[in-house]
Amino acid sequence: MTETIESLLKEQQEFHPSADFVKQANMNDPHIYEKAEADIEGFWEGLAGNIDWFKKWDTVLDWQPPHAKWFSGGKLNASYNCLDRHVQKHGDKPALIWEGEMENSETYTYKELRDATARFAAGLKELGVKKGDVVTIYLPMVPEAVISMLACSRIGAPHSVVFAGFSSEALAQRVEDAHSRFVITCNGYFHKGNLIQQKERADKGLENAPAVEKVIVVDHAANIIPMKEERDIWWNDLIHNVDSECEPEHMDSEDTLFIMYTSGTTGRPKGVVHTTGGYMVGTNVTSNWIFDLKDDDIFWCTADVGWITGHSYLVYGPLSNGATIVMHEGAPDYPDKGRFWDIVEKYGVTIFYTAPTAIRTFMKWGDEIPAKYDLSSLRLLGSVGEPINPKAWLWYYETIGKSKCPIVDTWWQTETGMIMISPLPGITTMRPGTATRPFPGIKANILDDEGNEVPMGSGGYLALQNPWPSMIRTINGDEQRFIDTYWSKWGADTYLTGDGARKDEDGNFWILGRLDDVIKVSGHRLGTMEIESALVSHPSVAEAAVDGKVDEIKGEVICAYVILESSCDDQCSILEDELKQHVVDEIGPIARPKMIIFTEELPKTRSGKIMRRVLKAITNGTEIGDISTLQDPAVVEDLKRKVNEIG
Ligand code: WTA
Predict the structure, then answer these.
(1) Is any ligand 1 atom within 6 A of the Cβ of residue 524?
(2) The pTM is what?
(3) Ligand 1 pocket check for 525: Cβ under 6 Å
(4) Where is the AMP-dependent synthetase/ligase domain (predicted)?
(5) Is the CB of 385 under 6 A from ligand 1?
(6) Which end of the chain has fewer CB atoms < 10 Å from its terminal CB, N or C?
(7) Nearest CA to 468 among 14, 25, 44?
């Protein structure tokens, strides 16, 4: 890790936005930062004007740390802002271009997307969904996922989208936690040509969630599935018999828009709660200024709707700006490794937003693949989810952007709702490896344990010291965890991001990665404790410790240390496969450990606590440091040897 940090910091190459880009940029006033800082509430209040309100707010911000209320008294509807208000202006403009795995596609104009949303929203009401009811959406990248989200927000039912690749168990856990009585899923979908039996997976999970009353099923893959009487209903049947109109509900600014589950430092994922007004203001302006969204842009964010990036920059941000979005179901290497560039060419994508892990993979596949396609429509590139190493940044800039597209390296989190640190492409000097500066109105800092700012260039905790409109409001059903996790390290007005960072003399922030028990595997956020509890739920496992090992392509891969109930002797490799599959069954394929190391001991203190720092050093072959407080220092050498053997 340290090596990567050093190479990041040494990277001094600078890239200025071209004069042409600056001239046309939505935001090109370099003084915007000072202007925002001089009157932060006024700054956000001005931006709230880009959203349509049924009733204007009474107060911009009510800040009782750590509780913020934004635009209190205001009434609005997110689906109205994403759809209806654009229909009059450009109802025939494509809102959503969907490209399926089998190279089939569908386009919805703004009018069509609004109509489909209104009709499905009427269907939800017909089924008994009321304002405030949480609807769980367990759909892959199909247009119905977007329609479902917008239909929920239309009637004031918070949605909880569960990534379609999560297991039955993970679905059940999230449905239960949210007390969700309604689930939307599909019969199946294709992944690299294979049929995934999504309904079967949902059914299995829902056995453990008896409170679920209705399951709406999209017929996506035409596979035959059993339907449970009384509970299950086909999407098409539901919308067939309902009114085609459904007026958008007038929601309070602080009404919950959605819950998004994410991983933290315990075995249980947490439901991050986002509310309506502030979230819409934040995602609207960041889409507009950071992605420089224009009327004729074709914006492709490759993130899945199951993650926050899919919420903020596939759906709410771009649609509230009236942009055209591309949504792709499938993988970058199916049917071949040119798939993404094929889509860019096919639709003339102008803005492309993806994760460093994908960029590094493309780089490995070779320049000859993108070279076969016409990428000249691209004018802006984005990166999100993990630090982008300068080598990958430069490759992205030169090979994909042909040295003419600014790159926005955007740092943010599920909890922040919107991008927090990023270049503004019409203003900022880019430097490969840094997300550059906090967005106007955002106050970020690098602090030490006591809450003091660290000296320039030193590493420390990345903290946020101002409230912002799209900030997390609470953790669903666990207010104490909300306070303990984010607002307790230094006091209730300073937000702990969980990331380490450094700031250079130009004010650029260099994100160094997580400092807690969260790991990022191919940009997916996972909790080490979550994987540990999955492992120990297997009868052969007595104890487990999970760690991230630095990986050139994926950022990190999962390395699990397992103490067995009894020795596996000649069955070890069979058991290893079984345990990997067990984690897949408990969480999903994204959590599959890359390596499992069987051991009799773990590096623990005398009080029996695993020393994560030592484990991290063993996993990554770095300097171990002081191990005098370990119960049994010999375990270190033993584990180091085992890790080395596996490679
Ligand atoms: C990491 C994803 C470096 C970081 C939007 C953060 C990044 C976590 C960047 C949140 C970036 C995200 N540079 N690291 N540009 N963007 N991260 O909740 O560790 O899935 O805390 O949200 O991703 O992950 P999450």
Answers:
(1) no
(2) 0.96
(3) yes
(4) 83-468
(5) yes
(6) C
(7) 44
